[in-house]
TrEMBL record:
This is Phosphoadenosine phosphosulfate reductase family protein. InterPro entries: PAPS_reduct_dom, Rossmann-like_a/b/a_fold. Residues 35-187 form the Phosphoadenosine phosphosulphate reductase domain. It comes from the Bacteria. It holds the Pfam family PAPS_reduct.
Amino acid sequence: MDFTEENIKKYNSQFKEAQPEEIISWAIGHSKNAVVTTNFRPYEVAILNAVTQVRKDVPVVWCDTGYNTPQTYAHAEKLIATLDLNIKLYVPKQTAAHRDVVMGIPGIDDPRHAEFTEQVKLEPFKRAMAEIKPDVWFTNLRKGQTALRDTLDIFSLSRDGVLKVSPFYSWTDEQLDTYLEERNLPNEHKYFDPTKVLENRECGLHI
């Protein structure tokens, strides 16, 4: 199915009050090759659970920067096992230990920060999307996270024309807390993204 900006507006109006499961079911029904991406940050379990409840074998792309906290790695292992995720792991071509010697983690004002972000996040992500070639991409983007994300909606188009679906787009942390509690799903808040530094700074994947 071809997704256009005109169609996107219609879908956002149509599904404005829909529950995540309804949004996901519709998107999967209109896709040939859906994928969900995750970094196992706080509340990611919601999108992982919701998508896999609709379709168990959806590929789950995890672009691991190599700089996650021990708590995030333990959380990821737990979710991969309990949700039986069809995980597709993508990592940078250079190890974190090697990069620590030659570059470290540059600050956002350091000219090398763009290269760092490309190495640890953008290149693995682009490689994943090039290999899997999805037409529908499930994410847990939410309104209020960054200025850019405030301009998006439940449905949007990526730069490559992939339909990006964010079923929890309008949900608050409090609503997600209730969602997780009702389903006895774990959460983990000790998370570190070396490319963002500031919580409300865009990482580059969704530009």
